[in-house]
Structure formats: structure tokens, C-alpha cells
Amino acid sequence: KYVSDLAGGSEKVLELGGRFTKPVIVPAGQDVDLTVSATVTDVADGKATLSLSATSAGVKVLGMAKAVVAL
Q1: pLDDT tens-digit series, residues 15-71
Q2: Cα dist. 20→12, 24, 29, 67, 71 in Å?
Q3: 3 state DSSP class of 7
Q4: What is the pLDDT of residue 55?
Q5: Which of 13, 18, 57, 69 is the most exposed place for a label (fewest CB within 10 A)?
């Protein structure tokens, strides 16, 4: 959802990959903060490559995450 919102719609998301490196435990009936950010690492041929990062409770929980979106 973060990447599709950032790109301007899911149809603009060309590639998306990554994996959780730590579990994000969500107790029943409670909210958990998950902070997601993106950095543009390349722009070419009408596409932008993004490096993604996610943290929960200050701990990095997403590894090797990237996306390619159409501009």
C-alpha cells in the first residue's frame, strides 16, 4: 500500500520485493507502529528504483527491499 500510494496507483508498481528479517508481533486488540520509508536510488527510462526500509519499535524489520515504479 505504501509503494502504490507513493507511485500514484498500483498499476504503476512494476516490481516489488523484500522480506521481513524480524517478526512484527501484533497482540490482539492492540495497534503496532510500522514505519516505512523509501529512497530513490535510480531514475532511468521512465522508471524509478526505490530502496525501502521498515522499522517497528525502532527495530529494522525489512531487508533487501526494493521497488521499481513507473513515472
Answers
A1: 999 999 999 999 999 999 999 999 999 999 999 999 999 999 999 999 999 999 999
A2: 23, 8, 22, 15, 27
A3: helix
A4: 96
A5: 57
* Helices assigned H by DSSP within the chain: 2-7
Q: How far apart are CA 50 and CA 46, in angstroms?
A: 13
The Cα 45–Cα 26 span in angstroms is 40
Q: Is 47 left (phi over 0), alpha (psi -120 to 50) or beta?
A: beta
pLDDT confidence of 2, banded at 50, 70, 90? very high
- Closest by CA position to 16, among listed 46, 41, 42, 51: 51
